[in-house]
Amino acid sequence: MEKRIVVLPGDGIGKEVTKGAVEVLQAVGERFGHQFHFTYGSIGGEAIDTYGTPLPDETIQHCKDSDAVLLGAVGGPKWDTQPPHLRPERGLLKIRKELNLYANLRPTSYYDSLAENSPLKKEYIENVDLLFVRELTGGLYFGKPSERVERDGKEAVVDTLYYQKSEMERVIKLAFELAEKRDQKVTSVDKANVLESSRMWREVADEISRQFPNVELEHMLVDNAAMQLVTNPKRFDVIVTENMFGDILSDEASVLTGSLGMSASASLSEDGPSLYEPIHGSAPDIAGQNIANPLAAILSAAMMLRLSFGMQEEAKAVETAVNQVLDAGYRTKDIGRTVNNYVSTSEMINEVKAMI
Ligand code: NAI
Ligand code: MG
């Protein structure tokens, strides 16, 4: 097969880890006889410096014309004092909207060889396998108005949590479809005791669940979910929730079984190319040192193979290679609590490629 992949390395370690994902995809292409064509685009702080905007129109068009997008990370202290429209994160929010990336999938998988890296005891995390489905283009992060106001003569501020019912339906339906192929359980997380938006969310989840008689639905309040994730993560299979709750809870879940440097994600589009990225940021504290863990980016590439290209065997080959490299004892610093010798980013990339 032939596929066009747009790579948006972004800032900081984004550049270092996407290089690994590209090289691993090239190795997959060679082994399985596919042609992956890579082209590069600009986003984030690096785009601000070059084009004066965090997401040039050219990048958007380029992504729309591709089969899939691979993103690194954006941001860094250099741009933290910029006005809101010139912040790297704006580029990220904008690309989600432009590509209609309505569902962010973040799996948390257990690696036996990394059990000692977890903040939880092994008995709590052994065989944890959960999947976050986070709504990505609505809710509090996009609602208008979002501004400073003066009300009753007082300095004040307003953010808006806005959802169309259809936006809830499409992401909740996807969660059920995914659960059908997994352990047939959906946990819908909300704050229905307080928020009207959550009460509608709950109604929609109940409605959709009728189409999936084999899938069990439970509702859970977000504060309880935050607690259960660390006390009993094994109880979860698929967790579906709105944008901000999902942002917070999925970061919490990602460290359960190891490191931020291991957690991949897919952001699925309803009508165009999907986007794949590690969930971590640009890590300015370690950027440029060749010590970042490239596995989250590499595992994001595996999700691309599976979800955008339907290449099951190829995706499995990448995941197996990562497992084998870990089992053989190779560790970058972030997952190396129990070893003395760390490998660099580029050594880790080479080991995975060699396994493939
Ligand atoms: P971060 O994820 O960049 O880093 C948090 C901590 O984890 C740091 O100590 C970092 O060194 C470590 N870390 C992260 N990824 C790692 C990897 N692959 N290997 C080894 N260690 C790793 O989050 P932070 O520090 O809150 O944000 C830094 C910048 O990244 C900010 O400008 C933030 O806005 C941006 N950011 C961007 C995201 C994106 O592009 N999707 C997501 C999160 C943050
Ligand atoms: Mg986040």
Automatic annotation (TrEMBL):
Pathway: Amino-acid biosynthesis; L-leucine biosynthesis; L-leucine from 3-methyl-2-oxobutanoate: step 3/4. Its cofactor is Mg(2+); Mn(2+). Its EC number is 1.1.1.85. It holds the Pfam family Iso_dh. The keyword Cell membrane does not apply. Belongs to the isocitrate and isopropylmalate dehydrogenases family. LeuB type 1 subfamily. This is 3-isopropylmalate dehydrogenase. It comes from Cytobacillus gottheilii.
